[in-house]
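Why does this matter for the project? Reviewers at the last site visit asked to see concrete outputs rather than summary tables. In response, this paragraph embeds two records directly. Each consists of the residue sequence and, immediately after it, the corresponding structure tokens. Nothing has been edited or filtered.
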Amino acid sequence: MGGDGWGKVKKGVINYVKENFPNKKKNNIIIFDFLNDIYLIALIKNAYAFTYPSFYEGCGLPVLESMSLGIPVICSFISSLPEVGEKSVIYIDPHNFYDLKEKIRYLINNPQIANDYKRSGIVQSKKFNWNKSVLKLHNFFQQL
């Protein structure tokens, strides 16, 4: 969940976990503070899937990073995420917890499909790179 920038949201999640999972030995929930890039990449690369039930996303970098690392992605069908993920991610309604739950279960129960999403995510992520982005931005400014 990142550092303290999440403020009340992070505190709310921590309180929810404490109230609903009081026995630390029986829950496997870890709430991180800031992680540097090395640890963040290792965490993502060792995940079974990356879930991103966002209500708003500016450019979709977390989804793009996860796809580029070969991790299947489950994310919201909002904002820029469909443009970033196209057909290489599984989409959910971020307002529907049960939709997220079912899509996670679907991936876990279908490892071959998870592998298909891994491969297609890597291919999709290669459509995006910083050099292309800088060139497009430069061209945009030239037209002003």
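We now turn to the second protein, recorded in exactly the same manner.
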Amino acid sequence: MAKKRGQNEGTIFQREDGRWVSRISLGYDLTTNKRKQKTFYGKTKDEVRRKLTEAQRGNDLGLNVAPKTQTVEQFLTHWLEQVAKQRVRPATYRSYEQIIRNHLTPGLGKYSLQKLTPQIVQSFLNAKAETGISVEHLRRVLRTALTQAVRWDLVPRNVAALVSTPKKERHEFTYLPPEKAKAFLQAAKSQRLEALFTVAVAVGLRLGEALGLRWQDIDLDGKTLTVRHQLQRLGGKPQLVEPKTSKARRTVPLPQFAVNALIDHKARQAKEKEFNADTWNEQDFVFTSSIGTPVDDRNIRRTLTAILEKCELPHMRFHDLRHTCASLLLAQGTDPRTIMETLGHSQIALTLNTYSHVLPSLQRDAADRMQKLIG
């Protein structure tokens, strides 16, 4: 028989098996007309009293102390479709969906959302790190989702914010020094989309930014280029989206060699349009297929590989042309803020941290100039 609760202790009692129980009444559920209660269990009387007191305090503050039970998988599925899909860009949503489907759901989906602990998340991330996966992305998505769970009073804290990710080696990206950059651009002259690669090296556009350019964004007389959109593919269909940040929406000056490449490209495109008049799909894009439609980024990567092989350069990603632009600008002594604005970085610290590999040579040059001035 359960022992009688102590005086002024609320709903606290001990079961016949020795476990202590505390229970808080939360009124009535208007949809079922049943009393809502939250029950806590513990090995000692003090333990369940503490849980009861915390629940009473939370209830007084209007917090949801008895959230509906759901698994991590159920919550992440709901958050992805009802929150993330409405707020983030298509490419970001696609990345979130892949991370949740391939990693978070298999590893954490079976756990109760309310019972997910920092220890569970830490063990999950450590195991993933041992397989060579970049776990920072996994933690970031989980942390973002659980932030919403905290706002909805489903959990009292964000357990993903309480864990750390294993230290990883700094990624050394590929870039072309000046002579090899010249060789690359010379090899690109044989390609139909020579101007695309020339502009990428000249002003460091992201691939989506370059493919999203329309002729209204190019001022050949003023020698400027304006980034207003990015071209992304969602479900296999090209779609123009807004730049990720306000800094990414920018107007940058073009060097003359890039202007020349764009002039030649526009003349070539006019001939293609005339030759393929029956099939041409005019959308005003600067870089198009042979019938005027947006270029498939897979074709860009194949063309890039062909150019690199022609001039016997190692494999590179298109994004490494952006790194090449930044490295060349830094090597010329261009100030970091100008580079930040050219690349569309949101903070100057991002520019400096990303291209810190070039800074030692700049520091040597600065020391030599100081010696020449004063020594």
